[in-house]
Write a structure and sequence with these properties.
By secondary structure, the chain is an alpha/beta fold. The protein has ten helices and twelve strands.
């Protein structure tokens, strides 16, 4: 008997991106013979006509929607309108067109930014509506959160099978190291490696360093998404995380040590910290589709740093 994905046609929006590359690789390992990645050069998924053309040309059974306009705190502060509009229009229209074509399943991948700013730790899925998201990334978080509303409404009215997953902050080889849009782990790795290369005696970091974050190795997150696609068929949201938290100050010190940077870490308290704490309750994913993150944090960081250092040598 073949695997779940073997004969199904699967579209992965954002499949050429960071997480998307790991998801498509995971699909290949599961024997999926028909994987389609709508590239931005060919399909602008904010545009309805392009979405319709994508569905007509690729004719998917399953859509895994990963595509997003994303960035760190700085990018969110600079582009709140763009992040809200583009992410909302992509997701809402993709799901609607999937419903109209009666596809087998739509997998909406949301964001940890959808949670309220002061969510009790660990974040449980039932807390999602108990407050407004952290202000710096609320437009992005809310645009993704609307896919949960749509998923539940469509299941109720149309019997449409869509699921909504909430991955925590990702990291790993192949991450975005562009300083204008990168998240905290690649930003810190780049700062430390660049400081070593230039002989700088310090690095500058945003905020106080006293807030905490949870991180999941990207290959683990991809596995969680694929397990949910295979086994989960309900519209209740599900966290995809590793179930631990680390203070940003401690993270910076850890990355400095692993890269070999021995200079000073300076904190710019005038810059925003973002959400005070983040750690997910990951019991629902374990219970519903047997997902558990496997990669130890230090091991994942070492692999990410080594790959980045290697890529710089090859330039």
């Amino acid at each position: 008997m073949g695997g779940f994905f073997e004969d199904r046609r699967v579209v992965v929006t954002g499949g050429a991106g960071f997480l998307g590359g790991y998801v498509t690789n995971g699909l290949q390992k599961r024997g999926c013979r028909n994987i389609f990645v709508p590239r931005i050069e060919d399909y602008d998924l904010v545009n309805l006509e392009d979405i319709i053309r994508m569905y007509e040309e690729m004719n998917p059974d399953i859509v895994i929607h990963l595509a997003a306009v994303v960035g760190g705190i700085g990018a969110n502060l600079d582009h709140p309108g763009e992040f809200f509009y583009k992410n909302l229009m992509m997701g809402i229209q993709l799901m609607e067109q999937g419903r109209l074509r009666d596809i087998e399943k739509f997998v909406a991948v949301g964001t940890i930014c959808a949670y309220p700013k002061f969510t009790p730790v660990p974040f449980k899925e039932e807390e999602l509506w108990n407050g407004y998201p952290e202000e710096t990334n609320a437009p992005y978080g809310l645009s993704k959160k609307m896919l949960l509303v749509q998923s539940q409404a469509y299941r109720t009215e149309y019997g449409f099978n869509s699921i909504f997953l909430l991955p925590v902050n990702l990291y790993g080889p192949g991450d975005n190291f562009n300083p204008s849009s990168s998240h905290v782990i690649p930003a810190l790795i780049k700062k430390c490696v660049d400081a070593i290369d230039s002989g700088a005696d310090h690095i500058d970091c945003w905020g106080t360093g006293n807030v905490s974050r949870e991180f999941i190795y990207v290959a683990d997150a991809a596995e969680g998404i694929l397990l949910a696609t295979e086994h989960y068929n309900s519209s209740e949201p599900v966290n995809i995380g590793a179930g631990f938290e680390i203070k940003i100050k401690e993270l910076a010190e850890k990355i400095a040590k692993l890269t070999g940077f021995r200079g000073e870490i300076r904190w710019d308290n005038s810059k925003p910290d973002g959400q005070p704490r983040r750690r997910l309750d990951v019991s629902r994913a374990q219970k519903l589709f047997g997902f558990e993150a496997k990669t130890p944090f230090d091991e994942g960081l070492k692999t990410t740093i080594e790959r980045y250092q290697g890529s710089k040598k090859n330039l």
